[in-house]
Specification:
DNA-binding, alpha/beta, homodimer, 358 residues, seven-stranded parallel beta sheet
Chain lengths: 358, 358
DNA sequence: TCCTTTTGTGCACATATGTGCAAATGAATT
DNA sequence: AATTCATTTGCACATATGTGCACAAAAGGA
């Protein structure tokens, strides 16, 4: 009775083409098995995956059937998982889901995914778990032909690293908001996040090469009339899914936006003045989930909340303690349709009353 | 780095309710973990499944987190799979599928699933593999609210035994054709097949309590006007999916229909006369896939091919050597939209020219 | 209340699986 | 042709996993 490997082997990058090999101790391959398949290695991987996951054969017997060693089968299966050939999903829907999830879904009218977390886990571990879990959820939401808006930040970074491959066609990944700032030159990592999404879904990537905030609102207006920018904004219009986390002013570990030199001290103070509790893609909102009347938003580059709400599916990935007020605001503003969050935060969300704004 | 168990443990029936237990060596449970979930065992199973399949944790660490022994985690995961909480699917779609599949799909314009089979496999093993594979394919086709027509026969029997649980709502399983005959009293096994489908999909089952063939066509006409029969026929009208195999006159192991006392010698001879190559749900067809002009069909109880073709999705499960001519006929007649078959048959199907009928 | 039956648990052992390492292969280059 | 380089393979060993078994805890009956 077989088991089922899972780990993503820390093997080499391995982007290269597949090439046929012949073992000396074994009769030459190529005549074996079904003729006329694709690259031999991928063909074997599919075959192995079918026999292992569908037929419950042991790796040993699969090895015999493919005329390779057992360890090769192990590696084939490992590859099959990494490349998304095998897809494992957990059906937590309906009456099977724990009461916590059901209560949250009922209370807020959205789809909720609670990531199990042990109380003793460090914040970094929680983030990683949430990201991994969210990656699987994302796989069920992304489909061919879809345009997916993607924000950036530490949570999105973790998510991008946890993505599992799911090849699609004609999918388009579009950056939600600019990422450049006066302090750091590169901020290549925003683009790296995008690239990883693109690789995972074999999708084209549309970057948004503008700063996170303009210094002058008038400059933004001017830029927004530029053809190159209008094109990206046009792509954003077609989004079927937006993926983002929330920035929170009160977070123990302050969000990317509140470090990194994006905001001046004066600006931070102004945010507090207006009762801002958090942001989505560098657009700030108050406790009621409104982005209006906040000066800096006129210089921000993320979609207005009004525009965001037009996206049919809006997945928020949230990890950790300090973002509760931001989450309440975002929920009040109807910004979220699908939520992934850790168990601790979920519990607090259920119990804690929405903080009175300001 | 964890592995992933697969086998359906041969444990006791276990239909009973879940009950909380307390171990002496362990502090009482119930205070642990998220409060307010469903039955503790199912709650743990979900949690374990998420940690194991999504987070790639080892069973050992999950055991620690759930405060149970590692073996319990193993059993929880085993249960999670059996009950369909965990769903494993293989994405063989698009350009990743082997050329054999692509060629068949192109040639016949249908969706094809080829079950890998070693050349040295016995017929019974091939049947089992095909059935197991088909069960997974079926899971992707059956959805809530759907009416599924199900035939009977040895292949359907094997399929029913290989089904994996996938709970749905408002699904309806309806028997495609009568199964009683003058020889065997029970033929309980036709109903057992149906029951298994019902159990796997938590669906209501609609039986069709008529003989496989009437002695007199006029009796059928009369019965077809009966309210009870009309109700079943009405349900059949709503089918979104039909699942069947093919009977073949030439099969090495003759199909159920050609043994079992369903047909007299004279009837068998008449079938050959008319160039019959096989049947679907006891409705016979010739090499071109037509059921017309075949006397016995006026006494049969399965849906006419015209009626069958109205079902949007028609899954044919086929295993073994001798059914090639029947398959060619069924394909010519456009009876099939989705096909599951073993590799050997698939190869012959691709190469062999359609047998000239009669 | 006592007894029987059912169900779940941990233990220990037999299998099954993942992976570092060295050897072997095939392709590309000199 | 010889050489280099990047992959791939099989081996062997360390882990990880499945399961028979005996026992403990609940549930049901008398």
């Amino acid at each position: 009775m077989p088991n089922m490997p899972l780990n993503t082997a820390p093997t080499s990058p391995g982007t290269g083409a597949f090439v046929q090999h012949v073992t000396s101790s074994t009769p030459p391959r190529g005549t074996r098995g079904t003729p006329g398949h694709g690259q031999p290695r991928e063909r074997d991987a599919l075959r192995a995956a079918q026999l292992y996951y569908l037929q419950d054969l042991t790796m040993e017997s699969i090895a015999k059937e493919l005329a390779v060693s057992r360890s090769t089968v192990s590696r084939l299966l490992s590859m099959a998982r990494r490349t998304g050939l095998v897809n494992i999903e957990i059906n937590a829907g309906g009456d099977r889901s724990p009461m916590l999830v059901r209560e949250l879904e009922h209370k807020f009218g959205i789809k909720v995914h609670v990531v199990p977390t042990d109380g003793a886990l460090a914040d970094a571990e929680i983030l990683e778990r949430v990201a991994t879990h969210a990656a699987h959820v994302l796989n069920t939401l992304v489909s061919s032909g879809m345009t997916v808006g993607v924000a950036w930040g530490s949570t999105m970074q973790a998510l991008s690293l946890a993505l599992t491959r799911k090849p699609t066609h004609d999918t388009l990944i579009v950056q939600l908001n600019g990422a450049a700032n006066p302090q750091t030159t590169g901020l290549t990592y925003a683009s790296e996040i995008l690239q990883r999404f693109g690789a995972a879904y074999t999708a084209r990537v549309e970057q948004f090469p503008v700063p996170a905030f303009f210094d002058q609102a008038s400059t933004r207006e001017a830029m927004w009339r530029e053809g190159s920018v209008r094109r990206v904004l046009g792509v954003q219009q077609g989004m079927g899914l937006a993926v983002f986390s929330l920035g929170a002013t009160e977070a123990a570990v302050p969000s990317q936006v509140y470090r990194g030199g994006y905001l001046s001290a004066a600006e931070s103070a102004a945010l507090h003045e207006h009762g801002v509790v958090g942001d989505v893609a560098t657009v700030f909102f108050d406790g009621s989930g409104s982005d209006e009347g906040i000066e800096i938003n006129s210089r921000a580059t993320g979609p207005t909340l009004r525009a965001l709400r037009k996206v049919p599916r809006r997945l928020c990935v949230l990890s950790g303690a300090g973002k509760l007020r931001a989450l309440h605001g975002a929920l009040a503003g109807g910004l979220i349709t699908d939520l992934v969050l850790d168990e601790g935060t979920a519990l607090r969300l259920l119990n804690a009353p929405p903080s009175s704004s300001h």
